[in-house]
Amino acid sequence: MLHQLVLLLMAPVLLPQGIFIRKSTPRLKEAAGPRYGIEGQGKPLRLLLIGDSAAAGVGVEHQSQALSGQLISTLCDQFRIDWQLIAKTGVTTKEVWLKLSDHPKQDYDIVIVSLGVNDVTTQLSSSEWIKQQKRLVAQLRDCFSCQQIILTKIPPMDKFPALPNPLRWYLGSKAKAFNRKLERWVSTQSDCEIVTIEPPLDPDQMASDGFHPGPKIYQYWGNAAAQVIKARWL
């Protein structure tokens, strides 16, 4: 409610800034490279990554530099990983769970989710968003019989170089509100955990568009997710 009120009051400034950013920000391609495979040696592990442009590796040239590649390279010495990536630039949480409604059922041990930035840029409230997250998690359990669901916190959008103030402040504040709701709910779910890329988010380490992760941030993210997985599976 608070962010909706702020948006209403500051609309004459925020909306033109949002339109300008959409038109002026460079459109980077999703990372090239395979989106599925079997790699490593050790304990068998079936892994699915789903989400938005960050999950798709926008900001780096190849999937080996992106979340999927960084995660697998960290795990492959101890696990034999059968993995798949399903990600698309611009998708919201609602769009993903609508798509999953038609997805054939498969078995995965772990699902990693990267969603939220595109939700923050809409008029969706934090309460509405957490309802969508709950529905998505229920679908993941039903579709993929997964034992571990790792949700990525929305990155600190108040540090995105591409965003001017006050838009940067507004979206950053809204992202924090979304994350607070997510953390509270995940703490009640035994099969869900959160991974964050916030501490090392140096603007100089972001992609050239000032909006997506660069290689070092993807590396940190992949390592952080790997530690969450190892804590449960080793």
UniProtKB/TrEMBL annotation:
Source organism superkingdom: Bacteria
Boundaries of every SGNH hydrolase-type esterase domain copy: 49-219
GO MF annotation terms: hydrolase activity, acting on ester bonds
InterPro entries cross-referenced by the UniProt entry: SGNH_hydro, SGNH_hydro_sf
Gene3D superfamilies: SGNH hydrolase
Pfam families xref list: Lipase_GDSL_2 (PF13472)
Protein name: Lipase
Organism this protein belongs to: Photobacterium indicum
Lineage: Bacteria, Pseudomonadati, Pseudomonadota, Gammaproteobacteria, Vibrionales
